[in-house]
Structures are given as C-alpha cells and as structure tokens.
UniProtKB/TrEMBL annotation:
PANTHER family: P-LOOP CONTAINING NUCLEOSIDE TRIPHOSPHATE HYDROLASE, PARA FAMILY PROTEIN CT_582. May play a role in septum formation. It comes from Leucobacter luti. InterPro entries: AAA_dom (IPR025669), DNA_Partitioning_ATPase (IPR050678), P-loop_NTPase (IPR027417). Pfam families: AAA_31 (PF13614). Belongs to the ParA family. This is Chromosome partitioning protein. It comes from the Bacteria. Residues 11-191 form the AAA domain.
Amino acid sequence: ETVSPLPEATRILTVSNQKGGVGKTTTTVNLASALARRGARVLVIDLDPQGNASTALGVPHRPEVTSVYDVLLGDSGLADALQPTTDHENLWCVPSTINLAGAEIELVSLVAREQRLRTALQAFLAESEDTYHYVFIDCPPSLGLLTVNAFVAADEVLIPIQCEYYALEGLSQLLGNIQLIQKHLNPDLSISTILLTMYDARTNLAQEVASEVRAHFPDQVLGAVIPRSVRISEAPSYGQTVHAYDGASIGALAYLEAAAEMAERGAKVDSSTERQN
Ligand code: ADP
Ligand code: MG
C-alpha cells in the first residue's frame, strides 16, 4: 500500500460551493476515503442537515445519535460525537442529524456563534491522543451560520466545480463571501484546491469550462479530474464510498489520483482571492 506524504500539521478543509448537486458530498467522502487508504488518519465532519456524508460513510445518524448538532450547541464535545466508519479504519466521522436543520436559527442567539465549530475542533485536536492528518467539513449549499462555522474552522477551502454552463456564475459570489470571511473572521483561510467533477470529456462544453477554470485558478485546480461515473453515483445507496463499492472503477481511481495530488502539493496556496476576481 502506498503511503502519502503525510502533512506535519492537521489540514482542515471545508468543501464548499453554494450550488447544490455539484459534488461536494461525493468529493468529501471519496477524497477522505482515498487519503485514509493512502495511510492518513482522516476525519469527516458532516455539517449538512441532509446527512448524506454520514450515509455514504455508513454512519448512523438517527435523530437520537450524538451529532455535530450537539457539538455546535455546546452540549457535547466533538469526541462524544465521533464514530468509526465501515469504510476504513483510518476514517472517522462526526455525523449530522436532522436536528441540524434548526441549528441555523438556534445558533443566532448564542455567544461566539461563528466560532463554535472551530473551538470544538481545536479542543478535540489538542486533546486527542491520535493525530489526524486531514479534517474535511461537508457544507450545505447555502451561506448560513453552518457554512460560516465551517469557513471559520478551516484553513483551506476545497471547491468542487461541475463542468457545465453556469459553473462560473455562482463562483464569484462564493469568492466574495470567502473574502468577507477572511476580512472579518478568519484571515488564514485560503482557497487551496479546486476539483473538476462530473467531467464528460466527450463534450466541448466540459472542456471549455475546464480550461476557463484553469485559466482563472492556475495554482488551485488539480490536474486530476473526476469523470461522470455511474459507480460513483450508485455507491451512496449502499452506504459506501466508491472505493468500498468498486475500488477498481474509473471513479475510484480518479479520486485516488486527486488525493495523491493533494497530498503531494501540501497546503501551499495563494491566500489572496482578490487577484482572482
Ligand atoms: P452536493 O453535495 O454538492 O449537493 P452531491 O455530492 O450530493 O452534491 O452530488 C449530487 C448528485 O450527483 C448525487 O446524486 C451524486 O451521486 C451525483 N454525483 C456526484 N459526483 C458524480 C460523478 N462523478 N459521477 C456521477 N454522479 C455523480
Ligand atoms: Mg451535499
């Protein structure tokens, strides 16, 4: 088994894009699983009330399960919500439950409402006897307090982009929001990684969108692209990542390639989103 170059400090990535259905959750679980399979210890925090990441990792997330909701409200530490996954012994998950849907509103009246995930995660990482090499936070497709908590907790933003006509449209709004977060809440946040997903090499449109994104973000876009693949879309209904479901499929190999590239590049980035607007 290949062992990644492991990062010296924990890399905390939020997987964000205000568009729904662009592959945020799919990318979160399959990249996390790929890195775990390359020898890293990886934690996935499911911050979407839909709980799709928890489902794909085979982690229970019934309403009574201790979840990221309890962590955000301060009723549990992150360690209490941590669960092993059936996917890989190196891969852990803090599930979301449907309770999280109300959290956007419940958080409003709490002190330090934007910092709650960061505080809980930092306390967990400091207390944990085990090293975590990567933390991935799967975000809902909106800029509410949940997503803001993810931006404040993370050092890196990973943006999955679906290679279709309107791909770049929502992006400038996302960049604007990231700049606001950098200015007011988390100066250390940077866009480290952009991953092209659901790529169909047979269409001119996909190639055009891909080259446009690469021209705008030459340092961030991974060389690896994720093809549209039935195996990738089937895996979650079995409560599996694509690596567990069909590890030899092109989709699994593409995520392994993306993971290797991420590990080799490290967290180096250009923190000014200014230039890219
Ligand atoms: P998001 O989290 O951004 O809403 P998802 O990761 O849930 O997006 O993906 C949206 C849908 O597209 C899901 O049904 C998922 O299975 C499917 N999907 C994601 N990536 C691929 C891919 N590379 N090939 C085929 N289907 C995909
Ligand atoms: Mg999702």
